[in-house]
Amino acid sequence: MKAPILLGAAMLAVPFVTTAPFTTSPSCSQSALPQGVVCAAGRLKITKGGTPGWPLTYAGQGRQVNGIDVEADNVVVDGYTMDGPKAPGIEIHGSNVTVRNTTIKAPKGGDGDGIRFFGDNIGILHNTISDTDNSTGAHADCMQTFATDDEDVASRNVDIENNRCERIDNMCLMAESPNSEAGDGNGEGVSEDWTFKGNYCETKQASQAVMIDDVQNLSLEGNTWAAGPDHAIGLQNKSTGAHVKDNELDPSIKCEVGIDKSARKGYQGPEPKCEP
Questions:
Q1: Number of helices and strands in the chain (H, E)
Q2: 261: helix, strand or coil
Q3: Domains of the chain
Q4: Rounded to whole angstroms, how far apart are CA atoms 251 and 68?
Q5: Would you call 15 helix, strand, or coil by DSSP?
Q6: Any idea which of 30-34, 184-188, 196-200 has the lowest mean pLDDT?
Q7: For site-directed labelling of 50, which of 18, 93, 226, 256 has its Cα 20 to 30 A away?
Q8: Selection from 67, 96, 128 nearest residue 9 by Cα
Q9: Is 210 exposed, middle or buried (0-12, 13-18, 19+ CB in 10 A)?
Q10: Using one digit for the tens of pLDDT, what is the confidence trace for 259-276?
């Protein structure tokens, strides 16, 4: 597993404070923002990064924003708060991007997701995402990725560790890759070499906490599967090489791993007892 490169970081505290909830467009002075950050209706758009060995850090220091879009490589987003942001609360398009120590509560609109990510060498670390909502017909996941076009691309070397997904209507992680079973993938690239470790997943309505479709070499270790989905992990459509160990299950979950025949190669972990 190749972790995101964080050898050094140029620190940049974005001098921007808004109030929540965002019933009106908050004050947003572009002159007060650093180069590479655009603000619209309280949502930050980051377009400037650093270098692979010296990523540029945007330090929120607890500031409230209405969501964040990262459209750059070599970026660290640290310490922002979002209460009722436009969904997804954070969306990543870039490589060598880390999002850490953020809080995202009750994302609104769209498909209702907390975080979406697209690119290589992604780190999602020590974040809290809560209260996603399926009531409008959304599939409101804590975290989601897919690979359907030139912007929403496959992801390699992804590290998702020590996050809390609390009161999530849909899945903790929904991952679909270029050759997804849904048939809407772009067929380009691969999603592989992921670590999903030490996360707390409270799934309220979905059949599984984590659904993996066409992602290879995924480690799921030391997670807590809370609430009561039918099963904790679904592995399908050539999601080979998965390693599952040391996870804690809510007593109501009778099957930890569901798997299909195409994902059996290289699997290590508890004996699968159900379909994905």
A1: 0, 26
A2: helix
A3: 10-263 (2.160.20)
A4: 37
A5: coil
A6: 30-34
A7: 18
A8: 96
A9: buried
A10: 999 999 999 999 999 999
